[in-house]
Amino acid sequence: MAKQEKTFRPKARVPKGLRDVAAPNVRAEARMLARIREVYERYGFDPLETSALEYADALGKFLPDEDRPNEGVFSFQDDDEQWLALRYDLTAPLARYVAEHYDGLPKPFRRYQAGPVWRNEKPGPGRFRQFTQFDADTVGAPTIAADAEMCMMACDTLEALGLQRGQYRLRVNNRKVLDGLLEEIGLGTDAADRTHMTVLRSIDKFDKLGRRGVELLLGAGRKDESGDFTKGAGLAPEQISRVLDYVESGLNEGSADRGAVLDGWRKVVGNSAIGREGIDELTEMDALFTAAGYGPDRIEFNSWIVRGLGYYTGPVFEAELLFDVKDEDGNLVRFGSVGSGGRYDGLIERFKGVKVPATGFSVGVSRLQAALEALGRVEKDVVAPPVVVLTLAAANMAGYQAMVGELRNAGIRAEMYLGGSGMRAQMKYADKRGAPVAVIEGEDERAKGIVTLKDLILGSEVSREITDNAEWRQSAAAQIEVERSKLVEGVCEILARHGLHSGHHGR
């Protein structure tokens, strides 16, 4: 007897580092996006949608390694053997868009965009390979006031989402100050230099790795808990010491006067012209923050804010949450950065050949939503479950469809049972859907011109108090009979009893 071949069945699983999002979280994110959009619109920004795919060469030095187009991004070759990549963020596609439509755009060009981005990086707790960002950018504005506006808008956005002052901090630095530091220790200011970027990215990890971790990254390198080794910048001990002294000067800056912080940084940059230019820009931003009422309890200057991407050229900033929450194991976890941005005057230059000043801010929506949930600041699902019309007679499907139509036309969320099971299974379905009301019209009801409305919320409450079947049969409180013509009126009465109205409020 021939051996029967085993049928291949793929394993049902979500790819590593990705996730599925259920209805309550989808709606919660939509509400978050709406609030962020309100703030961005109030500041005068307009929406833009760009493609999820870009040519890899358009991402340029934005990629972690230009020689390996699949490093850090998800990419593939098309029929013309050109590399395409899923967008790594929303800034690089904006740069391409502005370069492509430059002559027809108003200057400055102010846009916002929300959407998913993808990063081919090692996933971890709360760190996914696909996540949602919400960006706002001003392109064509050379003044430092544009950067200050981004910082103030970031604060307004966090507060619009329910965070209070003291629960977050917008931390600001300037790449030019960091360039001045590196120039003073003999590294030069070429941002494209590998050692230069390795030093900056090492500083950027100070809040996660601490002094020892950054010290290793500034030197020969560091091995993480999984055994993966990251090659370091290879600095000399004296250079490492001066970088760490600068970084650790920021440990107590949160409560310090911004002017005092700048005085300390002036010593760091010494005679570096670019470093002094960075200090002057931050001084101007400080004056704008103060004039608008954004004190150091909302915006601070911080030495270890760097931003690890190579395209930043001036002020850089991060929105950080300051509170701790407990994870599933009861351990205290700090969410840290939930938004970031900065000035990138050279990104569009790659396309145009001339500098086009630009600055922007990006909210990490997925991470911020998780933080707000932990803080109890995310509204519960406000969409009521649907009223379910049972389908007990195949010959009367048109009648059931008419009922659903009447309920929907009255603004009530409703659905007709479309499975093939009997009444018991249909009632289980309605209960699993969380339906507040089940509409029942069997042969007896149809002959009498009535429908039975089963209040499933009250029924659930009553069932917890009933001890035997006789008592259950005698209980009529959980269902009523109404004339067929008064279907909508009867359903509305039950919904109102539980504070539900027209599909817009939850149970």
Task: List its salient traits.
single chain, 507 residues, alpha+beta, BirA Bifunctional Protein, domain 2, Rossmann fold, 2 domains, 8-stranded mixed sheet, 5-stranded mixed sheet, 18 helices, 18 strands, 20% strand, disordered C terminus
Structural features, described:
This protein has helices at 23-42, 56-59, 91-100, 145-160, 175-184, 194-204, 206-218, 237-248, 258-269, 273-292, 349-352, 365-375, 397-409, 423-432, 443-448, 456-463, 469-474, 487-497, and strands spanning 46-47, 53-55, 75-77, 83-86, 109-118, 130-139, 168-174, 221-223, 229-231, 299-301, 315-326, 332-343, 358-364, 387-389, 414-416, 437-440, 450-455, 479-483. It has 507 residues and is an alpha+beta fold. The chain has an eight-stranded mixed β-sheet. It has a five-stranded mixed β-sheet with strand order 15-14-16-17-18. Strands 2-4-3 form a three-stranded antiparallel β-sheet. The longest helix is centred in the first third of the chain and has 20 residues, at 23-42. 37% of the residues are buried. Keywords: Aminoacyl-tRNA synthetase, ATP-binding, Cytoplasm, Ligase, Nucleotide-binding, Protein biosynthesis. It is found in: Cytoplasm.
